Amino acid sequence: SGTEKQHVADDYAKRLHIGQVECEQLVAMVLRNLSGRFDHDRPRLELQFCELANTSVCPASENNSFNVIVYNPIGRGIQRLVQLPVSADGLEVIGPSGKTVAS
Q1: Three-state DSSP class for 61?
Q2: What pLDDT shows up at residue 1?
């Protein structure tokens, strides 16, 4: 309601952050397991989450080469625009089929 004391708001923000970090760790573990499930010779992915992607900040996408996993949590297919902050020109987007995607 906007009437809570500052220490209550701070505690709430802290609890939300702890929950977010724990969820990221769980999702990262599951995706690492799935990514290496069928190919034991390939190294497992080291995942980073872009917490501030909405403010054009993501250290993982500042490299010239990086992979992106987009997760759809709902039970049906959707088409959405995915925006990523990048710092390089001339990057190419390659879809899961290995073909270049218009970007």
Answers
A1: helix
A2: 61
